């Protein structure tokens, strides 16, 4: 059985030089996942104790732009031993066992954080309803149920 649960995930977008993004990626940010969206863009996902102001003060790039973009994303977690199989019904992406990926999920642009049998998928907020319906429709045969 796989559960689909709407989750709130903080997302901080860091636009900075590749070197500054490398340095930030090497720093330990407790409770977060880091996703390299582009050479000059790093997403800090999760961790409510890490704020955009905290990151902006720590990054070594005077031209960096650090924004809290949490409201721009809607997130769901697929959890359970069958989560990778359900995900495979929605996307052709090959997921890491743990870490960050990005690409099309349910024909929508998405950011993905994988932690074993827990897969968190973030889509632009304006696509939230369409994504939710797609996961339930495509996952029904694989035993997806919505968490209450």
Topology, element by element:
Layout: E1 2-7, E2 11-15, H1 18-26, E3 32-38, E4 41-46, H2 52-58, E5 65-68, E6 73-79, H3 83-90, E7 98-105, E8 108-115, E9 118-124, H4 128-139, E10 144-146
Parallel strand pairs: 1-10
Antiparallel strand pairs: 1-6, 2-4, 2-5, 3-4, 6-9, 7-8, 8-9
Helix pairs in contact: 3-4
Brief rundown of the structure:
The chain has 148 residues and is an alpha+beta fold. It has helices at residues 18-26, 52-58, 83-90, 128-139; strands at 2-7, 11-15, 32-38, 41-46, 65-68, 73-79, 98-105, 108-115, 118-124, 144-146.
Relevant terms:
single chain, 148 residues, alpha+beta, Gyrase A, domain 2, 2 domains, six-stranded mixed beta sheet, four-stranded antiparallel beta sheet, 4 helices, 10 strands, 41% strand
Word description of this protein:
- Helices cover 24% and strands 41% of the residues.
- It is α+β, with helices and mostly antiparallel strands.
- It folds into 2 domains: 2-7 and 73-146, Probable tRNA modification gtpase trme, domain 1 (Gyrase A, domain 2, 2-Layer Sandwich); 11-70.
- The mean pLDDT is 90.
């Amino acid at each position: 059985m796989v559960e689909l649960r709407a989750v709130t995930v903080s997302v901080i977008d860091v636009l900075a030089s590749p070197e500054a993004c490398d340095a930030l990626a090497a720093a330990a940010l407790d409770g977060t996942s880091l996703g390299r969206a582009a050479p000059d863009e790093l997403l800090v996902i999760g961790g409510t104790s890490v704020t955009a102001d905290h990151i902006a003060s720590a990054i070594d790039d005077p031209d960096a732009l650090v924004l809290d973009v949490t409201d721009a994303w809607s997130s769901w977690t697929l959890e359970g031993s069958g989560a990778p199989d359900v995900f495979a019904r929605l996307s052709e992406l090959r997921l890491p066992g743990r870490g960050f990926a990005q690409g099309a999920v349910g024909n929508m642009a998405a950011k993905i954080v994988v932690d074993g049998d827990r897969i968190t998928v973030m889509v632009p907020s304006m696509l939230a309803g369409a994504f939710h319906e797609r996961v339930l429709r495509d996952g029904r045969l694989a035993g997806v149920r919505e968490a209450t």
